[in-house]
Amino acid sequence: MNKNEDRDKIITRTSVVGIITNILLVLFKAFIGFVTNSIAIILDALNNLSDVLSSVVTIIGSKLANRLPDKKHPLGHGRIEYLSAMVVAAIVLYAGITAGIESVKKILDPEPAEYNLVSLIIIGVAVAVKIVLGLYVRKKGKQVSSGALEASGKDALFDAILSASVLASALIAKFTGLSLEAYVGILISGFIIKAGIEMMIETINDIVGHREDAELTKKIKEIIRSEEGVRGAYDLMINDYGPSRHYASVHIELADDMTVNEVDVITRRLEALVYAQTGVVLTAVGVYSYNTKDDEAAKLRNQVQELILAYDWAIQFHGFYVDMKEKSMRFDVVMSFDIKPSEGLEILYRDMAKMFPDYKVYIAPDVDITD
User: Fold this and answer.
1) Would the N or C end of the chain have less CB density within 10 A of its end CB?
2) What is the largest CA-CA distance in the chain?
3) Domain hosting residue 88, numbered range
4) Domain termination residue (choose one: 208, 242, 260)
């Protein structure tokens, strides 16, 4: 059984546990809500029903995302999970808005609720169940990097807070006669809406693309730099095609006297090592060469590096190579987002022309993608 199959089984099993638990909670809460005439408990039941839908969406999303690549989708269907996480976020948002609207209606047209000991016990048990379920689902979501599961786990914990607030308002109403459940409903609906918006933003960032995890990029670069013959690793770009589906490209710096066969051996070994230790597929390994036959080249490199890195927006200088016979230099400069690449290049070419008027200079601007 491969890693994706294990992951799919964990997501499905966790979601089924959530579905069964929430269906039971819906039945109990709906019954108690109608018997006691409590809008707060009825809305709590409605919120649990939204959790059932969230779990169903999570299962469907996981199944679709785990489909094998095909002609139209050669890199797989992993990003479908991000869409399912967005649907879960939309369900949470809808549940929060609905709870808020119904609570306002209850304030405008109040009806006293009548709680008994059994109803209070059931609400208390529901709070405990939701806390356990939320922690369990969130833990499994982090274990298998499932945004949809993590969103469902967070939603369950918010439900526990909602149910606890309902219990508190019920106790206050029973012992003081003061009805606060509608106001509590408005307060909690605000938290639910906030959680839904945050889930939506997080999922949109996954779809649009964001800076990769610093620990992952650091580990990949360390693996590459530890290989004998490799002086540096640069321009690492990781493309996310769904949880645990990452494809990357990178440039490595090698001596200019290496043969094509030696370069081929190193790049293939690096591809295998990176995948074995991180699960990331290196789809392309580019090469920078550095001078090994001319001491003057090292002096020129230091002069150019000092010139470039004098600017705050010049984050990194790499890939330097100079051809003394042809009088040419080439190198890359990583620029921060504080300056437009065209403006940065204009400044650098101007400075290089002043310092090295006899040389042809080729500068490649790089984006600050990874930490």
Assistant:
1) N
2) 94
3) 3-208
4) 208
Q: How crowded is residue 179: how many other Cβ atoms within 10 Å of its Cβ?
A: 20
| Residues 175 and 235 reside in one and the same domain | no
The candidate with the shortest Cα–Cα distance to 318, out of 235, 220, 207, is: 235
**Structural tokens at position 102:** 């119904």
237 Ramachandran zone, left/alpha/beta (phi>0; psi -120 to 50) = beta
Per-residue pLDDT tens over the stretch 171-220: 887 777 777 777 777 877 787 788 788 888 888 887 777 767 788 888 99
Q: Is residue 118 part of a domain?
A: yes
Number of domains in the chain: 3
Q: What is the pLDDT of residues 211-246, one digit of tens each?
A: 677 888 889 999 999 999 999 898 888 888 776 688
Q: Are the C-beta atoms of 240 and 248 separated by less than 8 Å?
A: no
CATH code, 275: 3.30.70.1350
> Do 36 and 119 contact (CB within 8 A), yes or no?
yes
DSSP state of 251: E
Residue 187 backbone dihedrals phi, psi, to 5 degrees? -60, -50
**Who's near 185: CB < 8 A, 6+ residues apart?**
39, 40, 43, 99, 100, 102, 103, 106
